[in-house]
Amino acid sequence: MGVAIRAAGEGDRERVVQLLDEAFQDDPVSGWVFPDAAHRRDRHPRLMEVFADIVFAEGRIDITEDGAACALWLSVPADDTHADAGPADDDGPVQLREAVDPDNVRVELIGRLTAAIHPADRAHEYLWMIAVAPERQGEGLGGALVRSVLDRCDQEGVPAYLEASNERSRALYERLGFADTGHPLDLPDGPRMWPMWREPRAGSATGV
């Protein structure tokens, strides 16, 4: 039986934020942005709120019908180098820090570092984040969410891009046809992120 997926609406905002917060609380990158666990529990949900609101306004959020998983996508035109910093200008990372955790420079830095490595020469679909409820991980929900967009990418001849924040997600994306760009991002005194790119597959399916 397939996974039922629909576009999330504003009525799903609370659930989307909850999914993102639960899925990324223990992620290596979130741990780097908010090293203190208690502070992370307090501020991390706010960061996820801002991310969700940006994508609700500028992109698309897909959610499984049962609310167990969601994926945040942005359609990025060529030469847009600030897609993951929020507003498409140099103030985006600053605005992000001010909205989430004004004294935490790493909130701003993560936006600047990922924007700096974001491909700018070709239009593409950008998988910003994907979240699966902890108790539902391992059921294939994340793969189903990604494949639903990659199938459209293949039909329309559009590439896709993402940054994997851990080895487990990187392995999933490799199975879906993504490949390292060759330039991993090592956060200062922190974990590694893997920028990954996927060329559209003409006349093929993404099932793995």
Radius of gyration in whole Å, from Cα? 16 Å
Portion of residues in helices?
40-55%
Strand content: 15-25%
Shape: globular
Q: Cα distance, first to last residue?
A: 15 Å
Structural class: alpha+beta
Mean pLDDT: 91
Report the count of strand segments. 8
Largest sheet: number of strands, sense, barrel closure: 8 strands, mixed
Unreliably modeled segments:
80-88
Number of helices: 7
Helices and strands, in order, run as EHHHEEHHEHEHEEE
Feature tags:
208 residues, alpha+beta
Brief sketch in words of this structure:
This protein is an alpha+beta fold and 208 residues long. Helix content is 42%, strand content 20%. The protein has seven helices and eight strands, in the order βαααββααβαβαβββ.
Note the topology.
Blueprint: E1 5-7, H1 13-24, H2 28-33, H3 37-58, E2 60-64, E3 69-76, H4 92-100, H5 105-117, E4 124-132, H6 141-156, E5 160-164, H7 167-175, E6 179-180, E7 185-186, E8 192-198
Parallel strand pairs: 4-5
Antiparallel strand pairs: 1-2, 2-3, 3-4, 5-8, 6-8, 7-8
Helix pairs in contact: 1-3, 4-5
